[in-house]
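About this split. The held-out portion is used to measure sequence recovery: a designer receives only the structure tokens and must propose an amino acid at every position. Recovery is the fraction of positions where the proposal matches the reference. Here is one held-out target exactly as it appears in the evaluation file.
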């Protein structure tokens, strides 16, 4: 009996059509021992995330030929059942790339080294040491949420991490609207709220090139509560923490890879879409203002709202009342203190409390 050729007995894991004799997807799958879960996510990202050539030439492909984009995405995905922190691993991957070679040419465009890790995703079902802003922990129980970190390398490097956080916050809200048809909002600067409760947060961490003191790239960590944990949130969180679904009977997120992949791809698509507005032909002020206007529209904190500012996180010492005046193009909070003085607050300076944080 004649021996079957590869094209007769194997199918490409990305296109689901017959594989050619030298199918790169089949070869890559064999060499990397790729799981079906990873292939499925890579395929979804390739089909749904459109990235321009200036952001990553490896991921920018003809819309009618997604095979090589799927292979490129596969090399950027790191899946874990359990990890200490997705941000910690993503930071180490970015730091390693920075140490090996420059991520930018002299004109600010991305090198091959940068393109090889642009959009890298670290994804886990459980974090044992999830982190939030100002060193706080982020509760990340098994199979109840999305815990994802991605590497972002802007042309010219990271100029303003707060703008990156703001862009990611808008992207997450849009993704949740698209996948779950809900209307989340943003609490300045990095918290995602729904029905008056915090359902997620964003942690942006720049990584420095110690050879010249620049910040060529950053890691954007995203944590979202899809359902409550089986035993509920810890006592210290139950009054403020919420989830997209109100009870555990709605839990199908871990089992439904298609839904999870749709959410991840929607987040990535919206992040790159928002950032490309700012990166196109340099950080044009009008494009930054367009992104920040979307942020302001989704913000729970509006001009005229009263807030209590805590300069020292976790401490009531030296806290003071102020009135919100708005959020500027650098994602700084504009306030007026009770003595009439004006002040701009950076995201790392303060914690806020307000009765206005409902939606």
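Reference sequence for scoring:
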């Amino acid at each position: 009996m004649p021996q079957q050729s590869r094209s007769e007995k194997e199918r490409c894991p990305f296109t689901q059509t017959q594989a050619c004799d030298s199918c790169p997807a089949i070869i890559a799958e064999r060499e990397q021992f790729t799981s079906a879960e990873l292939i499925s996510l890579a395929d979804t990202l390739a089909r749904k995330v459109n990235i321009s050539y200036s952001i990553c030439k490896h991921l920018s492909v003809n819309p009618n030929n997604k095979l090589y984009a799927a292979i490129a995405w596969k090399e950027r995905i790191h899946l874990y059942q359990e990890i200490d922190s997705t941000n910690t691993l993503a930071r180490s991957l970015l730091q390693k790339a920075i140490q090996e070679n420059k991520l930018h040419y002299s004109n600010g465009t991305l090198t091959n080294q940068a393109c090889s890790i642009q959009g890298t995703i670290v994804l886990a079902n459980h974090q044992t040491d999830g982190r939030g802003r100002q060193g706080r922990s982020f509760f990340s129980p098994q199979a109840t949420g999305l815990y994802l970190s991605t590497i972002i390398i802007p042309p010219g490097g990271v100029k303003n991490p707060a703008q990156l956080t703001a862009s990611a916050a808008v992207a997450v809200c849009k993704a949740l609207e698209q996948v779950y048809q809900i209307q989340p909002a943003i609490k300045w600067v990095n918290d995602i709220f729904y029905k008056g409760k915090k359902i997620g947060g964003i942690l942006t961490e720049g990584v420095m090139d110690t050879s010249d003191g620049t910040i060529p790239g950053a890691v954007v960590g995203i944590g979202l509560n899809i359902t409550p944990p089986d035993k509920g949130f810890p006592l210290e969180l139950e009054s403020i923490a919420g989830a997209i679904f109100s009870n555990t009977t709605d839990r199908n997120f871990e089992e439904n890879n298609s839904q999870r992949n749709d959410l991840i791809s929607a987040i990535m698509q919206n992040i790159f879409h928002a950032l490309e507005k700012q990166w196109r032909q340099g950080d044009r002020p009008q494009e930054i203002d367009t992104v920040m206007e979307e942020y302001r529209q989704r913000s729970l904190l509006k001009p005229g709202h009263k807030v209590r500012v805590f300069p020292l996180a976790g401490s009531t010492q030296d806290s003071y009342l102020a009135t919100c005046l708005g959020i500027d193009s650098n994602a700084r909070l504009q306030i007026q203190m009770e003595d009439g003085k004006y002040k701009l607050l950076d995201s790392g300076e303060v914690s806020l409390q307000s009765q206005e944080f409902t939606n």
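Annotator remark: The CA atoms of residues 18 and 89 lie 36 Å apart.
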